[in-house]
Design goal:
By secondary structure, the protein is of the alpha/beta class. The longest helix has 18 residues. The two termini are about 25 Å apart. It has twelve helices and 19 strands. It has two domains: about 220 residues, Spore Coat Polysaccharide Biosynthesis Protein SpsA, Chain A (Alpha-Beta Complex); about 160 residues, HAD superfamily/HAD-like (Rossmann fold, 3-Layer(aba) Sandwich), CATH 3.40.50.1000. β13 and β14 form a beta hairpin. Helices cover about 30% and strands about 20% of the residues. The strands form five sheets. It has a seven-stranded mixed beta sheet, with helices on both faces. Strands 16-15-12-17-18-19 form a six-stranded parallel beta sheet, sandwiched between helices.
């Protein structure tokens, strides 16, 4: 049997700084799933393994295409090292008859792992150019430390301040990935041994999440730079808010108190195309309003109104139809959509959504509510279905 290149992602359920950190979402995707996705995007990687002590993490790992290995309790505490989890995973794989010659250790707390840079590190080890290679960012910073007699310059001469272009950079580990020769790692029992090479990654990809502030920043970054692989929306059902999605979030009120809203005929055609493709669609609204009922009837779709807890209503609707939440898209625009957005696999918002909703989204649409947002979702859902049909066997996700 040919030895494999295996990506191993240690992901405990516990975390002190950010509780349940590996399950927190960035760009609408759990951190552990983002790491899995990055590894699966590298052709050189034959298998992705998540080492965990948590059943929910294990379930998400399998859902995203990884093998989940449950580690023993003595390797699950705060004092357990990542190396111990990797060694345990290698032992488990060996017991299953899986030979490993290169191991890529990925950390889920790095939300922007770059597949091309990870592939570069793997190539260095596979070709023998290095025994271990890791991600790092260039640094031209001047480091100081507090000493007994005041501040002390570290690694530079405080009396000599050369320009940036006249200095050679130092490198700071990003923590995103470490690629190692598996045999050498078993012997050294540490991620650095033999010839070690640096794979330089851009600073914007070097984030590591250890605090709520860093998590918030990562979410903002993800909303500004969405993953291009998410252009096609691969789901089994679409659920939408009404105000701000089917409408422009404004209403005209007549003297008799009756409301009128502006909707898009283009959206109506999008809903029709979804229905013809057999994709269930639900309108989920916080308020009870005759205009919502009328529009839902016109479109021929289900509607739930007066929903004070959209998360619960959505979950009940999905369960009744046997639809996994991970296979549902929810389209919203405001803070009352957060529960639903944080529940589904494809949280989507319109471009003028509330910042908190945008930070929870996997996709930010290009069309605003009432001007084709629903049509855009429909087209992207249908595009995913077309791609699944035309993609060669063996190449489908």
């Amino acid at each position: 049997m040919t030895a494999e290149t295996v990506a191993i992602i240690p992901a405990r359920g516990g975390s002190k700084g950010v509780p349940r950190k590996n399950l927190e979402r960035v760009g609408g995707i759990p951190l552990v799933a983002r790491a899995i996705r990055a590894a699966l995007a590298v052709e050189r990687i034959d298998r992705v393994v998540v080492s965990t002590d948590d059943t929910e993490i294990a379930s998400i790992a399998r859902e995203w295409g990884a093998t989940a290995l449950i580690r023993p309790a003595d390797l699950s505490g705060d004092g357990a090292s990542s190396e111990s989890a990797i060694l345990h995973a290698l032992d488990e794989l060996r017991a299953r008859g899986v030979p490993v010659d290169v191991v890529a250790f990925l950390q889920a707390t790095s939300p922007f792992i770059s597949p091309p840079h990870l592939a570069e590190a793997i190539d260095l080890v596979r070709t023998g150019a290095a025994e271990t290679a890791f991600s790092a960012r260039e640094s031209y910073e001047f480091f100081w430390a507090r000493g007994e007699h005041g501040a002390e310059a570290i690694g530079h001469d405080a009396a000599h301040r050369p320009r940036r272009q006249d200095r050679d950079p130092l490198f700071v580990e990003t923590g995103a990935f470490y690629v190692m020769d598996a045999r050498g790692f078993r012997t050294a029992r540490h991620r650095f041994f033999g010839r070690t090479e640096i794979v330089s990654v851009p600073p914007e990809l070097a984030m590591e999440i250890d605090s709520h502030e860093e998590l918030h920043l990562a979410r903002l970054m993800a909303s500004v730079h969405p993953d291009p692989r998410d252009h096609a929306i691969d789901v089994d059902a679409v659920v939408t808010d009404f105000d701000g999605v089917h409408t422009d979030d404004t209403a005209m009120v007549a003297t008799n108190g009756i409301e009128q809203v502006r909707v898009s005929r283009s959206d109506g055609m999008g809903v029709r195309l979804l229905r013809e493709a057999g994709v269930p669609l639900l309108i989920l609204s916080t308020e009870t309003n005759p205009v919502v009922s009328a529009r839902a009837a016109k479109l021929g779709v289900e509607v739930i109104q007066a929903s004070g807890d959209k998360r619960a209503a959505l979950a009940a609707w999905a369960e009744a139809r046997g639809l996994p939440l991970s296979r549902i898209a929810y389209v919203g625009n405001d803070v009352n959509d957060l529960g639903a957005l944080e529940t589904v696999g494809w949280p989507i918002v319109v471009p003028d959504a509330h910042p908190l909703a945008t930070a929870s989204a996997r996709i930010v649409l290009t069309r605003t509510g009432g001007t084709g947002a629903v049509r855009e979702v429909a087209e992207r859902v249908l595009a995913a279905r077309t791609a699944a049909v035309t993609q060669p066997e063996g190449m489908r996700a």
